């Protein structure tokens, strides 16, 4: 059996047993794999240990129950196999930067630090998903601005519109001045913080190309990108599968990284390895602004 199928079965087993006694040995036995080999494959494919994945899923399930049920904090903690309300509160605050009671009062399903269940079909797409820390220079981007959210993403339609405008401009003037890399920037805002950002949060996106000197296109605006220090990731797969990568970065990488999300725009870069939105062999560079390690 391919290791991705084994990990997929393990993810389903974990999801079905979050409220029951559960550990890495039990999961490896459930998928008929030796603990040693299963642990290595899981860590390689998922970027975290089995125990870390189980704990992350339980804390995220607890966060959901805090917002969407009236069960007491103690009942939620005990039901998800935490030893006590105190140990649960410590683990929850470390992950979400809020106490369980404060999280419940806020009433928001936040994305950053949340660890939703992985779709077994996405197993393998996270392999080797570790960043380079890079300094990105400032740029002038020529393009389109629009409002979006994780729940309501109109990016593909906006890209079609942008590419049509750029193609018309090149046809009118000749040459390939706009044939370079494409950028998709997401502007930082008051509602995009670690304890407030959720699927319905409206953000301002700006898509475009680096502006050639002295060139302008009717209907397009200019955005000045300040640059700075970024964690650079490579997403391998279609645009449709991009959200799974973001969920991993928000839910697994950031809480364990030692970095904080800086108050600057994050962005995607579509370079020569991007083969189209539906091509599973496409590569998309993802850049998160980071501040110094904690």
Q: What's the pLDDT, averaged over the residues?
A: 87
What structural category do the secondary elements indicate? alpha+beta
What top-tier CATH class of the largest domain fits best? Alpha Beta
Total domain units: 2
User: How far apart, in Å, are the first and last alpha carbons?
Assistant: 41 Å
Shape: globular
Helical proportion, percent range: 25-40%
The second-level CATH architecture of the largest domain is Alpha-Beta Barrel
The count of helical stretches stands at: 9
- Strand-and-helix sequence, N→C? HHHHHHHEEHEEEEHEEE
Strand content: 15-25%
Let me know the largest β-sheet.
9 strands, antiparallel
CATH superfamily of the largest domain: Regulatory factor, effector binding domain
Unreliable parts:
none
Find the CATH topology of the largest domain.
Answer: Multidrug-efflux Transporter 1 Regulator Bmrr, Chain A
Gyration radius from CA atoms, angstroms? 21 Å
- Counting DSSP E segments of at least 2 residues, the number of strands comes to 9
GO molecular function: DNA-binding transcription factor activity; sequence-specific DNA binding
Protein name: GyrI-like domain-containing protein
Domain HTH araC/xylS-type: 8-106
InterPro entries: AraC_E-bd (IPR010499), GyrI-like (IPR029442), Homeodomain-like_sf (IPR009057), HTH_AraC (IPR018060), HTH_AraC-typ_CS (IPR018062), MarA-like (IPR050959), Reg_factor_effector_dom_sf (IPR011256)
């Amino acid at each position: 059996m391919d290791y991705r199928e084994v990990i997929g079965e393990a993810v389903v087993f974990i999801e079905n047993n979050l409220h029951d006694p559960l550990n890495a040995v039990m999961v490896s036995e459930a998928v008929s794999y030796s603990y040693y080999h299963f642990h290595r494959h899981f860590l390689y494919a998922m970027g975290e240990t089995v125990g870390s994945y189980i704990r992350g899923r339980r804390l995220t399930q607890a966060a959901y129950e805090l917002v969407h049920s009236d069960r007491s904090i103690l009942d939620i903690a005990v039901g998800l196999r935490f030893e006590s309300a105190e140990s649960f509160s410590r683990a929850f605050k470390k992950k979400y930067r809020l106490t369980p009671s404060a999280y419940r009062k806020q009433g928001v399903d936040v994305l950053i630090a949340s660890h939703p269940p992985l779709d077994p079909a996405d197993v393998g797409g996270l392999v080797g998903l570790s960043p380079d820390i890079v300094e990105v220079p400032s740029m002038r981007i020529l393009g389109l601005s629009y409002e979006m959210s994780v729940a309501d993403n109109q990016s593909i339609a906006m890209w079609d519109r942008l590419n049509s405008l750029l193609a018309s401009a090149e046809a009118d003037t000749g040459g390939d001045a706009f044939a370079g890399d494409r950028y998709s920037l997401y502007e930082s805002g008051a509602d995009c913080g670690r304890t407030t950002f959720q699927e319905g949060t409206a953000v301002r996106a700006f898509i475009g190309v680096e502006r050639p000197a002295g060139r302008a296109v009717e209907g397009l605006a200019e955005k000045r990108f300040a640059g700075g220090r970024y964690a650079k990731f490579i997403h391998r797969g279609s645009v449709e599968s991009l959200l799974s990568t973001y969920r991993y970065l928000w839910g697994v990488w950031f809480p364990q990284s030692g970095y904080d999300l800086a108050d600057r725009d994050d962005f995607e870069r579509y370079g020569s390895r991007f083969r189209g939105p539906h091509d599973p062999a496409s590569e998309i560079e993802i850049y998160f602004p980071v501040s110094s390690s904690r």
